[in-house]
Design a protein that fits this description.
The chain is about 50% helix and about 0% strand. By secondary structure, the protein is mostly helical. The chain has two domains: about 45 residues; about 90 residues, no CATH class. α3 crosses α4, α3 packs antiparallel against α7 and α5 crosses α7.
């Protein structure tokens, strides 16, 4: 049996052993790693020996680990006081929660395109749809140098929703800056 680390005698450096100044940094780190690994293994064995007599009941993880309660998406805070900016903010949130699609306003899974998200979030005033689409188109044209880009063509030109979703968020910020 090995002596415990506390009682292990240390061997002083003699003329036959290399001094630590003669060793490279990598060699010293390797030696320290080996010594620490040995000490951790000894501590693990000592812990197992010292706790072997303690009778414990196995823990049933089904009773301990529980998943979060499905409460649905978090409520959307009202960041923008103006109606067009608020509509674009809700559309942005809809794109994040329902998912993004191209080629249709709403696909079979419920994902929406940029205009589909705006239409889904209209609360009463249909005139806001045109205003929100105009601000969104302006934000798109600021992003793209192509002046004849439309909202549907911009939406459908992307393979994933990262850029279109970000563009709806930027349009909400633009509408808020304009007081719309």
């Amino acid at each position: 049996m090995r002596p415990s680390p506390a009682t292990t005698p240390t061997i002083p450096a003699t003329a036959g052993t290399p001094a630590s100044a003669d060793l490279t940094l990598e060699t010293r780190l390797a030696l320290i790693d080996a010594a620490m690994t040995l000490r951790l293994e000894e501590a693990k064995i000592a812990y197992e020996v010292n706790t072997a007599h303690i009778d414990t009941e196995p823990t049933i993880l089904d009773d301990v680990i529980t998943g979060p309660v499905d409460t649905g998406p978090a409520p959307l805070p009202d960041l923008y006081p103006t109606p067009v900016a608020a509509l674009l903010q809700r559309a942005h949130h809809r794109l994040l929660t329902a998912g993004w699609c191209s080629g249709a306003l709403v696909d079979e899974d419920g994902a929406v395109c940029m205009l589909g998200a705006i239409r889904a979030e209209i609360r009463g005033d249909r005139g806001l749809e045109a205003d929100a689409a105009a601000v969104l188109l302006d934000a798109i044209r600021r992003h793209c140098s192509n002046g004849d880009t439309t909202v549907p063509s911009f939406n459908d030109a992307h393979g994933n929703g990262r850029v279109p979703i970000r563009m709806v968020d930027q349009a909400a910020q633009l509408a808020d800056a304009r007081g719309l």
